[in-house]
Amino acid sequence: MRRKRILFVDLDYFYAQVEEVINPSLRGKPVAVCVFSGRNEDSGAVATSNYEARKLGIKAGIPIATAKRLSNDVILLPMRKDLYKGISDKIMGYLSTLGTTEVASIDEAYVDLGEITLEEAFKLAKEVKERIFKDHGLKVSIGVASNKVFAKVACEMGKPDGLVVLDDEKEEKLRSEIEVSKIPGIGPVLREKLNELGVNKLGDMKNLDEYKLRKVIGEAKAQYLISLANGTYDEPVKVRQRKHQGRYVTLKRNTRDPNEIKPYLFRAVDEAFAKASGALPMEIHVVAIMEDIDIVSRSRTFKHPISKDEAYNTCYKLLLDILIEDKRQVRRIGATLGKLKKVDGSLDKFFDFKLDGNSV
Q: What is the CATH number of the domain that holds 301?
């Protein structure tokens, strides 16, 4: 039977796998790709790790110092983001030839295959795996289902290097038996709230008062779960346009001195604007990673795109707000540009126009 099929691709342990392809001697050894902060040789965090490293407890997000304590044999490599992005762009470009493609992250994407049979979907997914391995030497996991959520769940079921295609019967079983903790978008806090309501599996939704559910977890999440449980979830695959650009910089030492933090903050602003490729933000976020790795942020939204000079001033004021409200020292500082807009014509003319009071 022909019906809509969504394919989800996950480039398994992507950064570390790329390093293995470039240097085959790494295969079979625990490898972690890390973001080194530059303060000292142990300062920074693991970005991703291969499965050998994960068996040792070395996972994304843990400090490099912790990774070293867990294993003397782990190979720690610096992140080469431009290299990984270049490979990712080529793979995503290939996927886009198969149908509408939504790039979820540097190593994940959804593809709308249109209305095809289960056999055609399996054959196509197999060809995708073979093509990516042939062209790039990379193993990927793929899930195929009638919607984006179950396609991603199917992919997780087959990891690593797996291929799982769900038919109607298997999807119906998932709607009854999948644990809510395994549903994309359901984090620990939301899972706990659902468990308190007696919802441990998606099928438990059918016995729950919808009004109570919406009151406890909110309208959007409630509608998401209800539609998933009822088999009516049908969020389309959409081509995403990047609307945010950000950069984070590690300070030479923890400090609360705004004058000491300022040049690092402005560097983050410079690099974020460079990544925005000429687009201007209508939203600014300043993010401070504190001495205990807690994250504090402040933001401001504008009615018009702003220049880099205005971004400097806004970011510095937001930094001061953080320092006034929080007494901890700052370890890292970052700036994110949101609601990016391309401005046609001369920037000078645009800003003259805005200052004349005629801007929207």
A: 3.30.1490.100
Please write the tens of the pLDDT for every residue from 27-68.
999 999 998 876 777 788 899 999 999 999 999 989 999 999
Output the domain CATH number for residue 75. Answer: 3.40.1170.60
d(C-alpha 341, C-alpha 347), whole Å? 12
Asked if residue 308 belongs to a domain, the reply is: yes
Specify the number of domains making up the chain: 3
How many CB atoms are closer than 10 A to CB 90? Answer: 13
Co-location of 196 and 266 in the same domain: no
Q: Cα-flanking dihedrals φ and ψ of residue 275, to 5°?
A: -70, -25
**One domain for residues 250 and 341:** yes
Is 102 assigned a catalytic role? Answer: no
* pTM across the whole model: 0.72
In a domain? residue 33? yes
Strands 31-36 and 75-78: parallel
- Tokens representing residue 209 in the block: 């008062």
Show the tokens assigned to 206: 């059918």
The answer to whether position 117 is within a domain reads no
- pLDDT tens for 230-268 read 999 999 999 876 667 888 888 989 999 999 999 999 999
Q: Give the pLDDT score at 209.
A: 87
Q: Which of 41, 52, 108, 196 is catalytic?
A: 108
CB 161 within 8 A of CB 139: yes
**256 and 313 co-located in one domain:** yes
List the domain range (segments joined by +) for residue 62.
Answer: 14-82
For residue 69, tell me if it sits in a domain: yes
Measured in whole angstroms, the distance separating CA 12 from the mean position of its chain's CA atoms is 15
Nearest by Cα to 99 from 242, 232, 239: 239
**Contact of 120 with 109, CB cutoff 8 Å:** no
